[in-house]
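Support request from a user on the community tier.

User writes: "When I paste my structure tokens into the form, the page sometimes reloads and wipes my input. The last time it worked, I copied everything first. Here is what I submitted, just in case something in the input itself triggers the reload:"
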């Protein structure tokens, strides 16, 4: 089961860093739904991984990160 958690943690980290890299290289707009979805899914994966590892500061960070992504999606959907 440990390998599954490691895969979840690494995949989530790749989503977050990948989203940032796409915005930094102007291949993705920071206001796009895609960007916010990548951040929310990545943060959710790292929240789960943080709980598994009992890494409470990382858990808090990723809860906030995910909330920002959700808010960004709501604002984007409102137009």
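"...and here is what came back when it finally went through:"
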């Amino acid at each position: 089961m440990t390998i599954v958690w490691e895969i979840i943690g690494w995949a989530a980290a790749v989503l977050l860093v990948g989203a940032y890299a796409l915005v930094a290289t102007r291949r993705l707009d920071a206001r796009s739904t895609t960007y916010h979805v990548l951040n929310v899914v990545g943060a959710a994966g790292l929240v789960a991984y943080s709980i598994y590892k009992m890494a409470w500061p990382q858990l808090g960070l990723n809860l906030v990160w995910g909330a920002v992504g959700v808010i960004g999606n709501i604002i984007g959907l409102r137009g």
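Agent notes: The reload is a front-end session timeout and is unrelated to the input. The chain has a mean pLDDT of 96. The two ends are 42 Å apart (CA to CA). Escalated to web team.
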